[in-house]
């Protein structure tokens, strides 16, 4: 049996070999400049994707989800600790929980919105909610879903239930990053939390909501505490909280957005700050860092592919798509 070091040596080398085949900015630009959607989609086959030139939007989403799930299932069998892959599955568990709770409360069938990318099968989660029995869910998640269901029943406010699930999601991400004892993963969890909170703060200030509302929306795990964020009374104060971090540019753009500036540039800067952190893994020869970066890169690539293909299919101008396209890992 291979040692942990040997496993990471092999896995890191394998993933490094795959990186040149991933979607690059240059390839994305070629897709955007293609004369038609069909030509755009065919260019993507160079990155190992199925030919989606004749697919509709729903079919594109399904194929991209299948690709993500296939990558994760493969790596689960190869990483020394499959919890590393679970880290990336957690958010889909909570996405499914939100969908199911709201659909259940409204008597709707939203099964088409459920993802199979979580740790827990959507059918298992459905059964847990319908039967009010959460023993088949991870303990922390089961507790959070039960509490969110109670919040929704008491208040009829799905946003409050969502806020509760968001907090639980980031608590799980933070705790798992500590359990895996990976400094790189802890940093990734922290910058994701900071980015999420910065977005929430800017949106809250733009809507003219008070600090109490913001406190409900904030998640744990970031380098800037929810208390300090909630105390930020205006956009200028918000920017100061992040001025020495990777999110400094995003925070400055957020301050401008609070005063009526564009949200597009702000949202783009938030995502690019997270991506810049992931790119640091390129400096690491082997270990969990290249694996974490590859998993994150696959997520980012699929997001970019979805944006380009569905945008071109809908007839959105390439320049508009280009303005919203995030930095890519490759």
The total count of helices amounts to 16
Indicate the percent of residues in helices. 55-70%
Instruction: Give the structural class.
Output: mainly alpha
Can you tell me the overall shape? globular
For the record, what CATH class of the domain at 81-181 applies? Mainly Alpha
* Topology as a string of helices (H) and strands (E): HHHHHHHHHHHHHHHH
User: Any idea what the CATH architecture of the domain at 81-181 is?
Assistant: Up-down Bundle
Question: Compute the gyration radius: what is it?
Answer: 20 Å
For the terminal residues, how far apart are their CA atoms?
32 Å
Strand tally: 0
Query: At the fourth CATH level, what is the homologous superfamily of the domain at 81-181?
Result: V-type ATP synthase subunit C domain
Mean pLDDT level: 92
CATH topology of the domain at 81-181: V-type ATP synthase subunit C fold
Largest sheet: none
Strand content: under 5%
């Amino acid at each position: 049996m291979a040692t942990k070091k040997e496993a990471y040596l092999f896995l890191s080398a394998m993933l490094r070999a795959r990186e040149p085949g991933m979607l690059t900015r240059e390839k994305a630009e070629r897709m955007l400049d293609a004369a038609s959607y069909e030509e755009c989609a065919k260019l993507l086959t160079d990155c190992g994707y199925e030919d989606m030139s004749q697919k509709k939007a729903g079919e594109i989403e399904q194929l991209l989800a299948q690709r993500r799930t296939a990558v994760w299932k493969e790596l689960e069998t190869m990483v020394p600790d499959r919890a590393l892959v679970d880290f990336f599955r957690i958010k889909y568990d909570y996405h499914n929980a939100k969908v199911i709770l709201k659909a259940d409360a409204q008597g709707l069938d939203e099964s088409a919105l459920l993802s199979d990318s979580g740790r827990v099968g959507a059918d298992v989660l459905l059964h847990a909610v319908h039967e009010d029995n959460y023993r088949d869910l991870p303990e922390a998640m089961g507790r959070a879903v039960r509490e969110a269901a109670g919040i929704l029943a008491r208040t009829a406010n799905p946003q409050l239930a969502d806020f509760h699930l968001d907090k639980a999601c980031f608590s799980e991400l933070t705790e798992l990053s500590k359990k895996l004892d990976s400094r790189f993963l802890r940093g990734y969890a922290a910058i994701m939390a900071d980015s999420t909170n910065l977005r929430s703060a800017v949106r809250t200030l733009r809507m003219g909501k008070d600090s109490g509302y913001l406190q409900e929306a904030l998640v744990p795990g970031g380098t800037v505490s929810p208390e300090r964020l909630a105390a930020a009374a205006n956009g200028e104060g918000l920017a100061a909280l992040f001025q020495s971090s990777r999110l400094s540019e995003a925070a400055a753009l957020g301050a401008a957005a609070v005063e009526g500036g564009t949200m597009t540039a702000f949202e783009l800067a938030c995502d690019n700050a997270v991506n810049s952190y992931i790119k640091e893994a390129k400096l690491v020869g082997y270990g969990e860092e290249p694996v974490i970066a590859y998993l994150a890169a696959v997520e980012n690539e699929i997001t970019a592919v979805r944006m380009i293909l569905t945008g071109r299919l809908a007839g959105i101008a390439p320049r508009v798509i280009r303005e919203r396209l995030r930095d890519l890992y490759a």
